[in-house]
Write a structure and sequence with these properties.
Blueprint (H helix, E strand, L loop, with lengths): L1 E4 L6 H7 L4 E5 L17 H10 L4 E5 L7 H9 L5 E4 L9
Parallel strand pairs: 1-2, 2-3, 3-4
Helix pairs in contact: 2-3
Length: 97
């Protein structure tokens, strides 16, 4: 099962939607510490990881990372709260579900 998160923030509905997903394709457009004052628009890597962990998702595939953000930092943030299979989605790559 695939769950896709568009522009959102962490909420119970997102955890419910991603519950038990094989792949959770989740946006992570913000960084911790820089974008904390903006709520309800985007997730950070850490918050995406928290949702994936709470939903028991098998794989977290981060997307919607702006070019001015460091994808490695987003991965590091996600890793603080999610221990499963974790990657950043890459344009032109196919993913098996």
């Amino acid at each position: 099962m695939l769950t896709y998160s568009g522009d959102t923030d962490a909420c119970d509905g997102l955890i419910e939607a991603a519950a038990g997903s094989n792949v959770f394709l989740c946006e992570a457009a913000f960084h911790e510490g820089r974008d904390d004052a903006i709520e309800g628009v985007h997730l950070t890597g850490r918050r995406a990881g928290q949702v994936a962990a709470a939903a028991s998702s098998d794989r977290l595939l981060l997307t919607h990372i702006p070019v001015w953000n460091d994808a490695n930092r987003t991965i590091e943030e996600a890793r603080t709260s999610y221990r499963g299979d974790l990657a950043v989605a890459v344009a032109g790559v196919s993913y098996e579900i």
